[in-house]
Design goal:
Blueprint: H1 2-11, H2 13-24, H3 36-51, E1 58-60, E2 67-72, E3 78-84, E4 104-108, E5 111-115, H4 123-140, E6 146-152, H5 162-173, E7 178-181, E8 193-198, E9 200-209, E10 215-216, H6 217-220, H7 227-236, H8 259-267, H9 272-276, H10 292-297, E11 301-309, E12 319-320, E13 323-332, H11 338-350, E14 358-367, E15 370-371, H12 377-389, E16 395-399, H13 404-413, E17 417-421, E18 435-437, H14 438-455
Parallel strand pairs: 3-6, 3-7, 7-17, 8-16
Antiparallel strand pairs: 1-2, 2-6, 4-5, 5-18, 8-15, 8-17, 9-13, 9-14, 10-12, 11-13
Helix pairs in contact: 1-4, 1-14, 2-4, 4-14, 5-13, 12-14
Length: 456
Amino acid sequence: MIDPVLARLDADRPQALDRLMEFLKIPSISTDPAYDGDVQRAAEWLANDLKSFGVPAEIHPTSGHPMVTGTLGDGGPHLLFYGHYDVQPVDPIDLWHRDPFDAALEDTAAGQVIRARGASDDKGQLMTFVEAARAWASVHGSLPCRITFFFEGEEESGSPSLLPYLDQNKGWMSEPDIALICDTSRIGEDRPAITTQLRGLLGEEITVHAASRDLHSGSFGGAAANPIRILTRILADLHGPDGRIQIPGFYDGVEETSSALRADWDALGITPEDVLGDVGLSHPAGETGRDVLEMLWARPTAEINGITGGYTGAGFKTVLPAQASAKVSFRLVGRQDPAKIREAFHSFVQERLPADCRVEFAPHGAGPASVMDTDHPVFAATRAALDAEWAEPAAFVGAGGSIPIAGYFKTILGLDSILLGFAREDDQIHSPNEKYDVKSFEKGTRSWARLLGELA
């Protein structure tokens, strides 16, 4: 059944690229109200495209930008496919080689690429699945299994409407057997990757207050509390000499990486120099005794992202500041509870405050880690489909960053997710001159088509 589908994809490639180019030319920037009409236009374009091969697509208004949904097919597993049709702003515009919404094919030393904002994140990725589904419907008159398409228009602006929408619709949205998310990268030029775990994220801003105003260090130095000194001592206490985080209870819910997964990661042959060399570093700075991939994918972190306080302008000013602030983020793994860690961090800071000082906390979001059950048979089917398409075997990998939708699908809908994407690390997402390799698009569509065949 799969051979004629693959042949249709190959024959229809020029038309598929034309459709993608048309989609990319819509400036669906969700963060800027000036583009609200274009975001709506992108949702309508997507709904009409799904309808063109039989999906009864609907546009659902929200308090923000709309959701696009549609379900088609019978039998086999019920799949929920997620993507987002909004894109990042294009600034700084002067660093782009061309108009970011004048999508075009470009020849590069590494091969032909699709150049436009959203080419990789996430319109090109999203359309790899849509084109695979279109080919199945064109050849066989239907999809090989039941598929619910779910496309969001606010992912790049924090998804403010997503949680209310999932809560309101979790009845019918909980019906699928598993979710598919196409917003990740392959691990090498010819080696695809299945992301099986994502670190969660917790952000906190802390401000230490001491005197009622800034003080002259000659008149008050040595006698008055200095918030910068207090703050930096607290931050220094976060890590022990072995790199472990010293907050009590922080490692509750952190499990050791399985020997099978470690073997998979070891087989990738990725060295610290591979990870750090491009940014001028060579020595991993995480927990002692952990290799670099485990640090990135399977271990929690506490990072200080910014410190402010006192006089930071040109020249010199001998001042004891009235306050000092720091932004601290935690990457979470396993079953770590963001709420408990936030509470423990607050206690950790407050216990280290001297008399006469107080602290303010400002939360900046929280989301748990996502760990997929790779014993689920869909993971074996995914590997088989990818191995049939790519020159090198598919790898199970982790991701250091966060894709909150996977956690929400688990906690709200009870669905595990397959995170499968075909981007490259050099696609410059969120940056000027974003691109998506034509190879990524071509082999991505064929990979999804093969996976649908395997699942059916």
